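Sanity check

After download, print the first record. It should look like this:
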Amino acid sequence: MPYAADDTRKVQTAVLNGADSDRPVFLPYDHDDFDVFMRTRTREDFYCGTLLGGCGKQLTAKRYTDKKCHFAHRPPVHCRRTRTDEASADHLYIGQALGRWLVRVGQRDTDITYPDLGSGPGGAVEARFGAGRRLIRVQLSHLPVPTWEAARAQLADTHTNVQWAYGPHSGLRHGEARALGPAVRFSCRTEGGNRVVYVGAQGTDRTIEWMTLDRCRLTDEGIAVPRPTGSAAVAVFTLAPGSVAFTVTDEETAPDGPTRLLYQAHVQPNGSATIRARVSLPRSVAPPLAHGLHVLDGTPRLHPLGAPAEEAWLVRADGFTSLPTPTDSRWPDLSPAPAPTPAGEPCRDARSFTAGATRVGGEHGHLTPQEFAKLSRSQRRRYWQKVKQRSLAEQSAQAASDRPSLRSGKAFPWATPGTTKHEVVKAVRGALLSAARRQVCVGWHTLAEAAGLKPDDLSDLARTSILVAVDQAAGPEGVLLSSLVVSSGSAPVPYFNEILGRLGRPSGLRPIELGQARKTEQARVFAAYAQPPDDGTA
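Expected C-alpha cells:
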C-alpha cells in the first residue's frame, strides 16, 4: 500500500542524474560529513532511483544535528521502496566497482545489469564482457537450491564462462568451495562517508581476507583473488543488519585508528549467546550510554582478536540505534546498568523511562515498555517526537540555570586535613598524562582513585577547579588534558564549557560547537602524546 504523504522514513541512499540512473550516493549520518558531502552537489541532484526499487521521484537531503541526516521524499509520496538503509544501494556500488575494474584490466565492452529476481532490483549484479559471452554473477539475495540450479544451468547455456560470486547474506551453495575451490565474496562498508566495495575468497575453513578489487586479476575463470601473504587469513564474519545488540560495560575508550573508538561491551547476536567484545564505532558517533540497550546499524563485521583475552572478538559497525526500553525479548541476556539518579532526586519506577512525555491520545503520563510495544509505527514516531520536545525543553532550562547539575560531594576535598589541592591536581594530572599516552579517555573513578579519593568526594565545582588547575600550565595554545575526561556512559562532562571560559579559551558555545571543540582538543592531546612505534632500532 502507498505510504502516507507525510513520509518521514530515513532514506540513506539515492541515485544521481535521474530516476533510472545507476550512480548511487550514500548520505552520511553526521552533520559535519553532510556538509562535506554537499560541497559539490545541489539539493536537486538526488532521486529515489528505480534501480533501488524506488518511485523515481526527487529526494531532498536533510541536515540534522540531533538525529541522523537522511534523504526525504517530497510530498505527495507514493513510494513502495522496501529498503532504505545504508546497504540498500550496495548492488549499484558493486556494479560500478566491477565496471571500473573490468575496464582497468582491459575489457572495454562491458555491460552491467541488475536483474529482478522477484522482489525488485538488488538481488544480483551481472557483469557481461568479452562480446557478452563471459559473465560474472554476484548473487546478493538468498536463492532456494532448485532456483539456484535452474539459474546456473540457464546462464551456462548462454555464456562461454560464468563465475558465481556471493554477497554477505546470499548464503553459499552447499559444497561450492569444496568442489570448485575458494568462492569469491563481495561486501560493502561505510568509510569516510562513502560505501566501499571489498572482495575476498572463502575456502572450506570459512576464513576470508577482504581487499579491494584493484588487487585482483582477471583470469579465464573470472576474478582471481590473491592468496593471503605472511600469516594466515583472518576470518571476518558479516552479520545481518539489525541483528546485533550490545551494552557498554566500561566508560573508558581506546582509539581504533585515527577515526574510530573502541568500547568494552557485552554483545549478543540475535539467537546467539552473549559474548564480551570490543565494539568499534566512528568517533563522529555519539558515545553509547552505559544504561542503554543499543542495536548496531548497517552490516556489523565480527573479527577474532587472535590472542587469548577476556574480549576475544572485535565488532566493527558504522553506528547504533538506542532502544527505548532497557530490555528486549530478541536479546534476553543483555541487561544494561541502571540509569544514574541525580543526587537529591528520588528513584523513579520503571514507568519513568519516558518521563514527561505526552501519551499518544493526548493525555500526559508515561508508557511502560509493554505499552510502548503495542503502538503502531506512526504512533511510536509521534510519541518520541513528544519525548524529544520535552527533553529539549529540559536541556534549555538546565542551560539557563546558574550552575546546572552540580554533583553532591565535598565542596573542596582539600579542606580535609592531610589533603592539599596541589597534591590532588598533581595526581589527576599524572593520571591524565598516562591516559594521553595510552590514547584513551578516562572517567572520574580513575582520576579520584589516583588522588586517593572517592568519586563522591568531588562535587562538579571541585572537579572543574581541579581540571582548570591541571590545564592552566598549558597556556593559551597548549593542549587540554581535561578534554579526555568523560562522565558516566562516556558522555562529555557538563562543565567543559566552563573550563574553557576559565582558561581564557572561546566559551559560551552552542552544543554542536562545544562537541566539536572537545573532539578537536582530544585529537590534539592524542597527537601530542602519541608514542612513536617501536621499530627495533637503537
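If your output differs, re-run the checksum step. Summary of this record's structure: Residues 1-8, 341-366, 394-411, 534-538 have pLDDT under 50 and may be disordered.
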